[in-house]
Amino acid sequence: MSDIALSIPQARVARPRSAARVLRIVQTVSIFIIALVIVSPLLLLVVASLKDDRFQILADMGSFRAFWVSKPTLSNYAEVGHLSGELAFGRYLINSLIILITTVCSGLIVNSMAGFVLAWGSLKGRAVILSIVIALYVIPQESIIMPLVMMVSRAGMADTFAVQIVPWVASPLYIFLFYQFFTQLPKELLEAAEMDGASFFRAYRSIFLPLSLPALATVSILMGIETWNQYLWPILVTQTDYARPIAVAIATFFGQDSIYWDRAMAASVLMMIPILGLYLVFQRWFVSSFIGSAVKG
Question: b/e string for 22-46 if b means 16 or more Cβ within 10 A?
Answer without folding.
Answer: eeeeeeeeeeeeeeeeeeeeeebeb
